[in-house]
Amino acid sequence: MQRIPDKEIHGYILDILKDIDRFCTEEGLRYSMAYGTLLGAVRHKGFIPWDDDIDLMMPREDFERFVRTYNDPAGRYRCIFHVNTPEERFEHIFAKVHDTRTVIAGQERCKFGLFVDIFPVDGKPDDPKAQARMERKLTHYAHRLTMLESRFRPFNFHQPLLASLAARIMGPRHYINAAEMLMLSHDFSTCQKAGAVSMTRNGTREVFDRSLFENYTTLEFEGCRFKAFADWETFLTQQYGDYMQLPPVNQRRNHAIEAYLVR
């Protein structure tokens, strides 16, 4: 296999984003750049220099249509969602579109190439206390699923031994079912509040007025234009605070992806 230089990874995943944009435009599907990708579009007009992934959000209706029907005519890119086969493996509450000609090294329980993450957006309860309870549960389920993606390390601070053992006993399907039951308990189209699921922390920073996910514009990203929330400033402020301020050098982290071209 041929190692893909780190400086070329952006090009591979940008090509995936271009194909997702093509498909969504043809099919009339809503999506937005999100998280560090949206921040990069606003602050850098492209990738955050030290970042190495792309995140998108879709309202649940559009998300389900996308994962069911996405098609790359060239056959290079595939959407994987709740997939567990010898060729592809990814079991979580969000989806990936990955480049099937590549593979990422160091994955124990997952099998996919360079990718773009796509997060579904669902309704949320109006009551702030109910929101907080819901987000704690959802983040718990997401954290357990993330544990299951990685190698078992009994002395890993971020994966306490008992929690890691429990996750492996229960298995991914248990947490996926619990999370999706809760995510789907509030219909996006009728709720006043909506959002995705935090993969990293509890709290209600993922809860927004539903209107945020219904109005879109485009923003420049690496010389192209892709869809973004029209009120992107509200999203970024709630996620990052003073989002135009660069973080300290020691906080500029990425996924340290090691990718190879396999065909």
Write up what this structure looks like.
By secondary structure, the protein is α+β, with helices and mostly antiparallel strands. The chain contains seven helices and 14 strands. The strands form four sheets. Strands 2, 3, 4, 7, 9, 10 and 11 form a seven-stranded mixed sheet that branches. Strands 1-14-8 form a three-stranded antiparallel sheet, with no helix packed on it. It is globular and about 50 Å long.
What's the structural blueprint in terms of helices and strands?
Layout: E1 2-3, H1 6-27, E2 32-33, H2 35-44, E3 55-59, H3 60-69, E4 77-80, E5 83-84, E6 89-90, E7 95-99, E8 102-104, E9 115-124, H4 128-149, H5 161-170, H6 172-183, E10 193-195, E11 208-209, E12 216-221, E13 224-229, H7 232-240, E14 259-261
Helix pairs in contact: 4-5, 4-6
